[in-house]
Design brief:
The complex is a heterodimer of chains A (276) and B (286). Chain A contains twelve helices and no strands. Chain A has 276 residues and is an all-alpha fold. Chain A has helices at residues 2-36, 40-43, 57-66, 68-99, 105-117, 124-133, 140-163, 168-176, 181-210, 213-218, 226-232, 241-270. Chain A has two domains: 2-58, no CATH class; 64-270, MetI-like (MetI-like fold, Orthogonal Bundle). In chain B, 74% of the residues lie in helices and 0% in strands. Chain B is mainly alpha-helical. Chain B is globular, with a radius of gyration of 24 Å. Classes of the chains: A mainly alpha (276), B mainly alpha (286). The interface between A and B is large, with 94 and 101 residues.
Chain lengths: 276, 286
């Protein structure tokens, strides 16, 4: 009986600690959301306000001042396009590596990963010069190309780790039955790898949406993504926390909600399938 | 099937990645050997290793390398240790576990610029920031985090963003623990600490390796968090190698020196890569 009691005491302690830790870690984000609905004066009140009458004026001002929709459209287009393009490049490569393993397959995979290790800033000057000479500076096309290439190694890796789990016999059987390469892909491979494709796509979407280095350096008023919009609010001209929060809220809400719904898929992909 | 088709399938990805790597690399090598300042276009010519000498003897250089390693090491340490503790804490069901999980992972989806601004202003501002208010509430003197402890602040900000990632992977890994084994160990009288030592931690080893690997890839080149908060300063106190190169290229307009720095960063990255490949290579064979 006493043992039962200590158990429940520990159980509640554990629950409370878990909630306490969660509160602390989520607090900054929650505070951002609260601030987005405050007036500027309330946003910097001392002591900080927790209860107040919410206002929507910040959202209107942000939209008026900096054309949120333009930046949001840029973010959406660049991340979706680079995800699709990346999958189209990565899937065939991963397929070939998984089912036609050659002497150099492993080396190629490692080499791909090592390109990802290089800091993007190492390529900044050449890429900037190339973008400028080819007229791709501050265009969505330019960003799509750069996003695709910088995510490609991870995409190949993730898809490879999915594909290599598929027994080659299944594919051989379909070939015996006279399926061509396209039919094999469409009716055998695609249904089997939907999960892998989905989680790879989801991750790339999140990475591209949040990408800051290339978008800060290669885009401005025309092709700027939400990341650049937010960075433009960092200028020290006065304290506009409520507007900053409103703009941030609008920039992260779509991808955070998206992340909540796809977290299970994401984590499988992110670990190269190594954590089950 | 002949050997041609797999090669043709691999070609687009391999060739585009190869170009993505080799063209900037060759250009960088070229730029690093010439005089190339965007503000002085008339001064050109081959200058050998002068740019390298300039970059490496720059007093900021040593600081930047140290800061890069400190940032990388601290964030990995913080996220792995806290991530493990949190994952263990919420491994067993309790009221509201689903909600806790969702709230905990949220910061990972927040873009670095938002993350950085949120901390810079609303958390760490020495007058109106929440932390300052908490300090005052407990009778302390508010700290000007970004000025007095710039690197520490950046570490906190980056850790906050990556902790959810580590936690999420550890939670997933813990769910595949062998429950019967745990039960058996309890029957045999093992206490929680013993279970931790002999069952939980060994089980987590592989996911720790993965977390370290992925974080290394992304943390070697932390940029946006520094750009939006401290701007590398004060002085060079929070400048890492990536940011130092950026400063040379776009603030001093010295593409030559920046390129020399970039090549150094590539070398640094490759040292890390060799280290990693050994680690991942083992996983790949399984």
């Amino acid at each position: 009986m006493t043992q039962r009691k200590t158990f429940s005491w520990l159980f509640w302690l554990r629950t409370l600690t878990a909630w306490g830790v969660t509160f602390l870690l989520f607090f900054p984000l929650g505070w951002l959301v609260l601030t987005a609905f405050k007036t500027e004066l309330q946003a910097i009140s001392v002591p900080p306000l927790v209860f107040f009458t919410p206002t929507l004026e910040n959202f209107e001002i942000v939209q008026e001042r900096s054309d949120y929709m333009l930046y949001a459209t840029n973010s959406l287009i660049t991340s979706v396009a680079s995800t699709i393009l990346g999958l189209m490049l990565a899937f065939p490569a991963a397929y070939a590596m998984a089912f036609f393993k050659g002497k150099y397959t492993k080396d190629i995979l490692m080499w791909m990963l090592s390109t990802k290790m290089m800091p993007a800033v190492g390529a900044l000057v050449p890429v900037y010069v190339m973008a400028q000479t080819s007229g791709l500076l501050d265009t969505r096309t330019g960003l799509v190309i750069v996003f695709t290439l910088s995510n490609l190694p991870i995409m190949v890796w993730m898809l490879y780790s999915y594909l290599k789990e598929i027994p080659a016999e299944i594919l051989e059987a379909s070939r015996m039955d006279g399926a061509g390469l396209w039919q094999e892909f469409r009716y055998v491979l695609l249904p089997l790898t939907m999960g892998g494709l989905a989680s790879t796509g989801l991750l790339t979407l999140v990475l591209s949406w949040n990408e800051a280095f290339w978008s800060l350096n290669l885009s401005a008023a025309k092709a700027g993504t939400l990341a650049t919009l937010i960075a433009s609010y960092s200028s020290p001209e006065g304290l506009f926390w409520a507007k900053l929060s409103a703009a941030s809220f609008m920039a992260i809400a779509p991808i955070v909600v998206f992340g909540w719904f796809s977290q299970k898929q994401l984590v499988q992909g992110l670990t190269f399938g190594a954590v089950k | 099937m002949n050997r041609f088709i797999p090669r043709a399938l691999m070609a687009p990805a391999v060739i585009s990645l190869f170009l993505w790597m080799i063209v900037p690399l060759v250009m960088t090598i070229y730029f690093s050997l010439i005089r190339y300042n965007l503000m002085q276009p008339d001064q050109t010519g081959f200058i050998g290793l002068e740019n390298f000498e300039y970059f490496m003897t720059d007093p900021s250089f040593g600081t930047a390398v140290m800061n890069t390693l400190l940032l990388l090491g601290s964030v990995i340490l913080i996220t792995v240790v806290l991530g493990t503790l949190i994952a263990l804490l919420i491994d067993d069901p309790f009221p509201g576990r689903g909600l806790v999980r969702i709230l905990l992972i949220s910061p990972f989806f927040v873009m670095p610029t938002v993350n950085a601004l949120l901390w810079k202003h609303m958390m760490m501002n020495p007058i109106y920031g929440v932390l300052a208010q908490v300090w005052i509430f407990f009778g302390g003197t508010p700290v000007d985090w970004l000025t007095d402890h710039p690197l520490f602040s950046v570490i906190v900000i980056v850790s906050w963003q990556w902790l959810p990632f580590a936690t999420l992977i550890f939670i997933t890994s813990l769910q595949s623990m062998n429950r019967e084994q745990l039960e058996a160990s309890r029957m045999d009288g093992a206490n929680y600490l013993q279970q931790l030592r002999y069952l939980y931690l060994p089980h987590l080893a592989r996911s720790v390796a993965i977390v370290v690997m992925i974080e290394m890839i992304f943390l070697l080149s932390v940029f946006a968090e520094i750009y939006t908060t401290t701007g590398g300063g004060p002085g060079d106190a929070s400048t890492n190698v990536a940011f130092l190169i950026f400063k040379q290229a776009l603030l001093n307009f010295d593409a030559g020196v920046a390129s020399a720095g970039a090549l150094f960063a590539v070398v640094l990255a490759n040292i890390a890569a060799v280290f990693l490949i050994r680690m991942v290579g083992k996983n790949l064979d399984k």
